Structures are given as structure tokens and as C-alpha cells.
Amino acid sequence: MKKKVLLIFMAALLLWTGMACASDEDPQGDLPQLELTLEELAAYDGKDGNPAYIAVDGVIYDVTDVSFWRGGEHNGFSAGQDLTDAIKNQSPHGVARLRGVPVVGELVE
């Protein structure tokens, strides 16, 4: 019985340690983050097979697989743009819906 409890404890400890280490890893893997200007961001409009990226507060999000952004369009807005003002001041949900959307880079001058 003691062996079984010890084995369960060790397995739980290994699992917990592995989860703690994983949280320190880059959620995007080891891929380098993009640095795009507004002009470069425009190419990521979600059309003709291009990914759909939007920028908010200088952070570039990949909305390609977000169901509400099919074809690079959502509620009259288009991907490939800095939508900081629209999302923060016009959107009913604000930046809350960006939680969990993959970050792929940052907007640069």
C-alpha cells in the first residue's frame, strides 16, 4: 500500500513539475515573432489564402482560425489593419475576446 501511495505521489509530482516547466515555454514554439509595419500587415488580410492578422496596442494577433473572422472580415472590419481604436472603443466586447488568440508578432514603425 505504501509503495502504491509513493508511486502516485511521484507521478503527481512529475506531472506538476512538467506542467510548471511547460508554462515557461513560448506558446508559439520556437518560432521568431514577426515585426511588421502597417504596410506589411496589410498583406495579411485573410484573402486569397493569406493568413488574417490584426494589430491591437502594437500586438499582432492571428485571427485566421477564429470563426468570426472567416475570410478576413468581421462586423465590417477587415484583417490586415491596426484595429486598436475599433476594438477598444467600438467593439462591445473590447479586448476580452483576444484572450487565447495566437500572438504572432508586434507592430513596428
CATH class: Alpha Beta
> Strand fraction band?
15-25%
Content-based structural category: alpha/beta
As for the CATH topology, it is Flavocytochrome B2, Chain A, domain 1
Please tell me the total number of domains. Answer: 1
Concise description?
The chain is α/β, with parallel strands linked by helices and 109 residues long. The chain has helices spanning 2-23, 38-41, 84-90, and strands at 34-36, 53-56, 59-62, 73-74, 77-78, 81-82, 103-107.
3D structure, described in words:
With 109 residues, the protein is an alpha/beta fold. It has one domain (29-107): Roll (Flavocytochrome B2, Chain A, domain 1). The chain has 3 helices and 7 strands; from the N terminus they run H-E-H-E-E-E-E-E-H-E. It has helices spanning 2-23, 38-41, 84-90, and strands at 34-36, 53-56, 59-62, 73-74, 77-78, 81-82, 103-107. A 5-stranded mixed sheet has the order 1-7-3-2-6. The protein is globular, with a radius of gyration of 20 Å. It starts with a helix and ends with a strand.
Topology, element by element:
Layout: H1 2-23, E1 34-36, H2 38-41, E2 53-56, E3 59-62, E4 73-74, E5 77-78, E6 81-82, H3 84-90, E7 103-107
Parallel strand pairs: 1-7, 2-6
Antiparallel strand pairs: 2-3, 3-7, 4-5
Features:
five-stranded mixed beta sheet, globular, 109 residues, two-stranded antiparallel ribbon, 3 helices, alpha/beta
